[in-house]
Amino acid sequence: MRSILITGCNRGLGLGLVKNLAKSSNPPEVIFATCRDAKKAAELTDLANETKNIHIIEEDLNNTSQYPSIVKQVQDKVGDSGLTVLFNNAGTSTKFARLPLVKEKQLIESFRINTIVPILLAKAFLPLLKKASIANSNNEGMSIFRAAIINMSSILGSIEDNDTGGFYPYRCSKAAVNAATKSMSLDLKKDNILVVSLHPGWVKTAMGGPNAPTDVDTCIKNILTTLKSLSEKHTGAFLQYDGKTIPW
């Protein structure tokens, strides 16, 4: 892929994506990595200083009024090539899982970060994604090498698979982003822009905790292998890190 923008790159899966893409045998020409405060993202900053194709975008994505500025920063780098991949990775969870403990603030925060931000970023970057689809039209059909939106979801967003209850803010916001993924896939099919929801698995991150069975590096390698295999038959799908379809 020519270019990719990844949100939430100060740590965890976002940082892992940047690191793996940067050191791959055929890295993207430009990797845009967002974080709220570069001073608190030392590893990302060091990596960007060592790797010329990594560009840090320091913005709070909750501040949607800044999206035109973010788009301009990307536009200035990619030009008529557009943005090949928008990877909506940034997310939040809450430890208050059961109904008696749910707070309004937690629900609002989860929906803002996990659902509203991915939708409005996709809207903001749509012109650049359409440019990429045209510029990369030699890649027939749909793929991450033409133009794509990847929305990081979770199996906890699956309604059919929910057999334990709880996790209201996280479950509901991830189910909502899955619904957005499906709508985007239909709206953008004519533009040959691939759109999928992705479950990364249970990973050793600040969100996943130390007892998770998978480390970040292994997870990201699996995700990148799956992303490279995607085609038009996958658009609108809810997939696991290994490509397995997850029920809605």
TrEMBL record:
Organism: Nasonia vitripennis (Parasitic wasp)
A Gene Ontology term for the protein's cellular component: cytoplasm
Protein name: C-factor
UniProt family annotation: Belongs to the short-chain dehydrogenases/reductases (SDR) family.
Keyword NADP: yes
Lineage start: Eukaryota, Metazoa, Ecdysozoa, Arthropoda, Hexapoda
PANTHER family cross-referenced by the UniProt entry: NADB-LER2, SHORT-CHAIN DEHYDROGENASE/REDUCTASE
Oxidoreductase as UniProt keyword: yes
InterPro entries reported in the protein's UniProt record: Fungal_SecMetab_SDRs (IPR051468), NAD(P)-bd_dom_sf (IPR036291), SDR_fam (IPR002347)
